[in-house]
Request: fold
Amino acid sequence: MANYVDIIELYRGKKGGIIEAFHALQNEFNYIPEEALGLAAKTFGISEAEAYGVATFYSYLSVKPRGKYIIRMCESAPCHIAGADRVVKAIEDYLGINVGETTADGKFTFELCECIGQCQATPVVTINSEPVFNVSPEQIPEILSACK
Ligand code: FES
Reply:
């Protein structure tokens, strides 16, 4: 695993470097660690508050630790009509967490998302951005237990 110092250094002096660095950090760690925020602020010559503002502006970036598996439930209208709320409940029950939380073992984070353009097969859940189609609440234990 790369360390955050090396990742940030790769983008020093580049236009828009801080955003690219945050993307790279997010890809590596699934979130932006607090120490990395501080170092990014120094490296790109802005205050820590500004760096935090950048990191929290984009919904796909996170400053909170997240799980190895990011489970997202599409909550746009077609998925909603197809029963997304029952799938949400099944995921929350199976993982023992609510939307926006991470399991204590750091394995799963559960979030909601907007339409991912797969409305022909609603409801849609993604696991680390891989879509799973036509998901029913009954399938959730099998789908999530396959995440090792
Ligand atoms: S509304 Fe869920 S994929 Fe389009």
